[in-house]
Design brief:
Blueprint (H helix, E strand, L loop, with lengths): L10 H7 L1 H16 L4 H11 L2 H13 L9 E7 L2 E8 L2 H15 L2 H7 L13 H13 L4 E6 L9 H9 L5 H11 L5 H7 L20 H8 L1 H6 L6 E5 L2 E6 L2 H17 L15 E4 L4 E3 L2 E4 L2 E4 L1 H28 L9 H18 L6 H28 L4 H5 L4 H7 L11
Antiparallel strand pairs: 1-2, 3-5, 3-6, 4-5, 7-8, 8-9
Helix pairs in contact: 1-5, 2-3, 2-4, 2-5, 8-9, 14-15, 14-16
């Protein structure tokens, strides 16, 4: 006879631990984790993958018994120029799977969708993206909207009131068991190691009643529900306010009405504990002007009938490629001069693959831009760097034939034989 105690759970809660939902959640977590720039994240995903079937079954059992507990998370303070670091939370793989499973159920919930089906928000929503946001701006320009004010919400995620979040969800979800798990999912607890490591800076992390974790898949959805009333109020009387999470673009046909609406927006956000940057000038977080002169928004420069990657994004893109080539060059010089072995991915083959991936990723991210001359100019710049790099490699390979395979990234049969775990030889081959 089973010793398990039967626990009544709501239909909505059952959807979270449905095996198909959990499996779909893991596939998404795995896909995102494998692309992470953090080696620690990629390794954890790889380790979980080796036991994923067993681990998901364990998660399912704990959820069914309502005994699942979220683990203390790792924290990272991401440096920002002239600003306090951005606190990023890195939950365990198990917790990410559960958070994703909750998100998927919420995204399929009719009442939640009714709130999220707003024409004014584009970030963190299914079937909405940057390209659609920019198309909406172009349509507004064509419709005669002349003036804009661009801003964003200061430290948005760290100032969201968790209590108000749950109050908002309670208006559309009645199931107590579901809300209890959601409440636990948005709480943040740092692991003991990071509590010690960050010491006085732990206050930057959302450990108290205010703030939700950046890095959680639930955060964008929470943001959209939290700002639903703001979206409705800011899109009245001939004024539009397009929002992408915490990035805002107000636009109108009348400059006076637009500036009044912007000030009303500031007051509304202040009433829920948030603060919007004021209009200061070029280079600031907030800026106002006319569309005919262009506006930088969501990483793009927008002009009537034209969208191009912003100058800062183009420069960052070029710098990433230049850095990849230069890092490889420095490593090759150290190999030749000081016999220091090349680190992983610093050889020629891996460097070219890395650069190619950077180009592919950036190209897809800005594939909707229609300033083809900019793309042509960037291609020419990359090609020049590519040939300069190949010339460097060719020169050093010709002068140093003994380490040519190492420079190029070619495998050597002798190394493979020596590294083989089971060998016919008791001593390394010479």
């Amino acid at each position: 006879m089973s010793s398990d105690v039967h626990i009544e759970v709501s239909t909505l809660y059952k959807k979270i631990y449905n095996i198909n939902n959990l499996t779909r959640a893991w596939i998404k977590v795995k896909s995102n984790g494998e692309k992470s720039t953090l080696k620690e994240t990629r390794e954890k995903i790889k380790a979980f993958d080796t036991r994923s079937k067993e681990a998901i079954s364990k998660i399912q059992t704990a959820l069914r018994k309502q005994s699942y507990t979220f683990s203390p998370a790792r924290g990272v303070l991401q440096k920002r120029k002239n600003k306090e670091p951005r606190p990023i939370i890195m939950a365990s793989v198990e917790d990410r799977v559960v958070q994703r499973a909750i998100l998927q159920v919420l995204q399929d919930h009719k009442s939640v969708n009714a709130v999220l089906e707003t024409p004014y928000s584009f970030g963190g929503l299914k079937e909405k993206n940057v390209e659609q946001a920019l198309k909406e701006i172009q349509s507004a320009i064509e419709a005669g909207f002349t003036f804009f004010i661009r801003s964003d919400i200061n430290n948005f995620f760290t100032k969201i009131d968790k209590k108000k979040v749950m109050e908002n969800f309670s208006k559309i979800i009645q199931e107590t068991d579901f809300k209890n798990l959601l409440q636990a999912a948005i709480e943040t607890q740092l692991c003991e190691e990071d509590m010690v490591r960050y010491d006085k800076k732990t206050n930057l992390f959302p450990l108290e009643e205010t703030g939700i974790a950046q890095g959680s898949c639930l955060s964008p959805l929470i943001a959209n529900i939290y700002l639903f009333d703001f979206d409705q109020k800011m899109n009245e009387r001939g004024i539009k306010c397009l929002r992408y999470i915490d990035d805002l673009l107000f636009f109108g046909k009348n400059k006076t009405y637009l500036e009044k609406a912007f000030q009303n927006g500031k007051k509304f956000l202040n009433s829920i504990g948030l603060e919007m940057y004021d209009t200061i000038g070029p280079g600031s977080k907030a800026f106002k002007g006319k569309f005919i002169d262009g506006v930088e928004f969501l990483g793009c420069n927008i002009l009537p009938g034209l969208v191009q990657p912003s100058k800062s994004n183009r420069e960052k893109f070029s710098d990433r490629i230049s850095t990849a080539f230069n890092d490889s060059k420095k490593a090759v010089e150290l190999l030749i001069k000081k016999k220091i072995k090349l680190k992983s991915k610093q050889d020629c083959i891996n460097t070219l693959e890395n650069v190619n991936n950077i180009v592919l990723g950036w190209g897809h991210a800005f594939s909707f831009c229609d300033d083809f001359q900019i793309m042509k100019d960037l291609d020419a710049k990359i090609t020049k760097m590519f040939f300069e790099y190949l010339s460097f490699i060719q020169t050093h390979v010709d002068k140093n034939p003994l380490v040519a395979p190492d420079i190029l990234g070619l495998n050597k049969l002798l190394s493979i034989a020596n590294n083989k775990k089971t060998s016919l030889f008791s001593q390394p081959i010479k």
